[in-house]
Amino acid sequence: YPRQHAPQTQLSKFNQTMIKAMMGSYIKVLFVRDPFQRLISAYMQSVGSHRHSFSTFVQDVLDRGQHNVKLEAKPLVSLCHPCLIQYDYVMMFGFLRQELGHLIHRAGLPKGIHLPELRDSEVQWTYEWLSEQLFSELSLKQKKQLSHFYREDLSAFQFSHSLLSG
């Protein structure tokens, strides 16, 4: 789409006609990850600057609420608006290697394009183990509150193995 704006301009700065035209001219791809695994990742990023337990970190996220929590812990639905934007592809962490080849083919990119080496499926088992360990540190109340906190993500995307779904 012809750039009539600065690269950092937010979509909300345009009128509805312009937004519809721009969005219709792109292949829209959404990369999603289990909300609990995203929360673990946010915790791991904060560990260097803070020395608190995972349970304390989770309680801080819950106390702040969806509107005041840091970007890394916000529910995906509030960031990517899947009800407003019709994404052409939704790709799940853990399956990127398989899905990316299909996306490149569908987008009409050259077949010989060099892809980065993706290790997401190899890392997946580590996250499953870590998820179970950290989930066991949480109180039943925190588990229920997290399930409620990420309820829209859990209903919008197929996170069938999420610990928050149960």
Automatic annotation (TrEMBL):
<keyword id="KW-0472">Membrane</keyword>
<keyword id="KW-0325">Glycoprotein</keyword>
<dbReference type="GO" id="GO:0008146">
    <property type="term" value="F:sulfotransferase activity"/>
</dbReference>
<keyword id="KW-1133">Transmembrane helix</keyword>
<dbReference type="GO" id="GO:0000139">
    <property type="term" value="C:Golgi membrane"/>
</dbReference>
<comment type="similarity">
    <text>Belongs to the sulfotransferase 2 family.</text>
</comment>
<keyword id="KW-0333">Golgi apparatus</keyword>
<keyword id="KW-0812">Transmembrane</keyword>
<protein>
    <recommendedName>
        <fullName>Carbohydrate sulfotransferase</fullName>
        <ecNumber>2.8.2.-</ecNumber>
    </recommendedName>
</protein>
<dbReference type="Pfam" id="PF03567">
    <property type="entry name" value="Sulfotransfer_2"/>
</dbReference>
<keyword id="KW-0735">Signal-anchor</keyword>
<keyword id="KW-0808">Transferase</keyword>
<dbReference type="InterPro" id="IPR018011">
    <property type="entry name" value="Carb_sulfotrans_8-10"/>
</dbReference>
<keyword id="KW-0119">Carbohydrate metabolism</keyword>
<dbReference type="GO" id="GO:0016051">
    <property type="term" value="P:carbohydrate biosynthetic process"/>
</dbReference>
<dbReference type="GO" id="GO:0050655">
    <property type="term" value="P:dermatan sulfate proteoglycan metabolic process"/>
</dbReference>
<dbReference type="InterPro" id="IPR005331">
    <property type="entry name" value="Sulfotransferase"/>
</dbReference>
